[in-house]
Amino acid sequence: VKVTIYPNPTPDIINIDIPNDVEVENIVLYELSGKMIMSVEPNVRTISLNNLGKGVYLLNIKTSSQSIVSQVIVY
């Protein structure tokens, strides 16, 4: 599954491009320590990160067939 997250790095908002034929089960953002920061509805494609501190986070997008983890850098 081809997923695009942009802009990365970002100062505040990320956009998620997922093909229309992919069924997303959940989207969760984690700190590098593994602590969950937020969970958003599967149909959300724009996430505001302006309340987070600068750093690297992990975005986990779970689909019916796989789990996709991407690094998101907030500056």
Descriptive report:
With 75 residues, this protein is mostly beta strands. Helix content is 0%, strand content 55%. The chain contains no helices and 7 strands. β3 and β4 (36-40) form a beta hairpin. The radius of gyration is 12 Å and the shape is globular. The protein starts with a strand and ends with a strand. The model has no long low-confidence stretch (mean pLDDT 95).
Spell out the blueprint of helices and strands:
Elements: E1 4-6, E2 13-17, E3 24-31, E4 36-40, E5 46-48, E6 55-63, E7 67-74
Antiparallel strand pairs: 1-2, 2-5, 3-4, 3-6, 6-7
List keywords for this structure.
75 residues; mainly beta; 3-stranded antiparallel beta sheet
End-to-end gap? 27 Å
Radius of gyration: 12 Å
Indicate the structural class.
Answer: mainly beta
On the 0 to 100 scale, the average pLDDT is: 95
Structure annotation, total helices? 0
Describe, in short, the structure shown.
This protein is mainly β and about 80 residues long.
